[in-house]
Amino acid sequence: MCGIIGIIGNAPVTPLLVDALKRLEYRGYDSAGVATLINGHIDRRRAEGKLVNLEARLRAEPLSGTIGIGHTRWATHGKPSERNAHPIATDRVAIVHNGIIENFQELKDELAAEGRRFESDTDTEAVAQLLTSYLERQMTPEAAMGKAMGRLRGAFALVAMFSGRHDILMGARRGSSLAVGHGDGEMYVGTDALALAPFTSRVTYLEDDDWVVLSSSGCTVYQGETKVERPEKKSGLSGALIGKGNHQHFMLKEIYEQPAVVGDTLQYYLDPATRTVRTPAMPFDWTDVSRLTMTGCGTAFYACMVAKYWFEKLARLPVEIEVASEFRYREPPLPEGGVCIAVSQSGETIDTLEAMRYAKSQKQILLSVTNVPESAIARFSHAVLPTLAGPEIGVASTKAFTTQLVVLLSAAIAAGRARGTLSRAEEERLALAMIELPARINETLNMEGDYRRIAENTLAAARDVLYLGRGSSFPVALEGALKLKELSYIHAEGYAGGEMKHGPIALIDDAVPVVVVAPSDSIFDKIASNFEQVRARGGKLVLLSDARGVAKLGAKAETSIAVPDIDPVVAPILYTVAVQLLAYYTALAKGTDIDQPRNLAKSVTVE
Ligand code: M6R
Prior knowledge:
binds 5-amino-5-deoxy-1-O-phosphono-D-mannitol, 20 helices, alpha/beta, Glutamine Phosphoribosylpyrophosphate, subunit 1, domain 1, single chain, 27 strands, Rossmann fold, seven-stranded antiparallel beta sheet, eight-stranded antiparallel beta sheet
């Protein structure tokens, strides 16, 4: 959600803070702000809207100072406005915060009773006022922070700067991520290693309930009142990774990176010489697993949905899937010794993390599929299956999803092999089909003009769009609909083709494009029937199939594209690229903000 940064050094920090905020803007972009200390006093500049507004403000009213904090916001408490933008400050302390202080109202009532006046609608101000109250009782900033940690409930990361104290910055985390960067005579604290990448590759990741005191030459980490050691690690992220290259949008760049990152992920999970899947050692034996539970949110949940087909078919393993935000509150009984797989690009999504906590309480073995090996979700797991997608900046998930699918298919094959439900010949055949993926994705990308034409001529003017699929193409239909709505703001829904006649068919008329995701697989004839049902009601059909499918049905569609031929088991990965291109070019035609769609943020660290 929000992005936070703090820098303590000897040179002017405002340009560095703004530079870091540019790298964090994908996390939230409804307002932004920076604060520095000048002659011991907190001074700040804040602006509603995108970071460019803050930059304009800073050009008009520059901010000096060698210690400072910055924030880019996705509003939770209080609408996006300059008044609610962070840093939130009193005359004693300035705070930037990501997450939610769940007991903010209780704290606010208590602090208001002391006579304190609140100036914003944020939960963050309760922390600023709480610290101020402690400081006014002559506590040191260290004592105040230590005590405040005992009072705050919720999942949060925050950085604080204290008036009169040019020598320290403080950070604290519970649930949300926070990392310290080590420089030469300069120290940094920020949401993640990506934010710190231009400054340093020497990073210390904080653990839950840690709070840290930074000076310009080092840091000390505490848990409660006890000093704790946290290792310094080398981050592999470079500052350069963040650019858009020659692409107009991060999303397009990330779509185009898929042949490479799918290839990298395959290289990690497959031995091409022997056509054998090789997953990291697991803390359990697949033959002992009686049921698999999978959870995630949004696109990551659709990865679970596709994987359910794979685990059930290839490993004959019963799989329960549920969106993480529902899963934990349903409190489902889970078999002791069962395995729970959490899927999350960011590794930060709070609903997913909380679902894992529930699964842990039910004695499940926790596996995570994530793109951020240092993330909270990764660290909470017993084992991690990494995706090698590289940083994903576009808010709409693209390469993270296709690499999640590669990882999950590899795991399903490994499970099938271990459980004796998948023959060696089958494994080799599937491995070969996976090895073909980067080339087939490239061929799909080479046809971008066809997708663009459909987007411009058929989708961009629509008010509603339906996506249909069956079997493992059903989650691809859901993913296509999600991508279209989040990017172009066109109402879109995905349905299992067979369900259409049970209700959604009422929506069909000649103004509603229906995108049919239909590789030639064992249930092609079934989706072909659903296709005919739409056609009979005058629906505008957009067919995504392979050459055989297009030969059978293409003439009956308003428009069709022949997706490259691929084994049906891996088809969801390839057809995902097709629906990504449709969504991207529709949004481009509509002129929406593709990388930063309205109301969204990249990492959802609040419930
Ligand atoms: O970081 P995560 O994979 O846990 O994020 C889950 C969802 O928030 C994410 O996939 C979201 O649905 C994207 N906006 C989809 O494009």
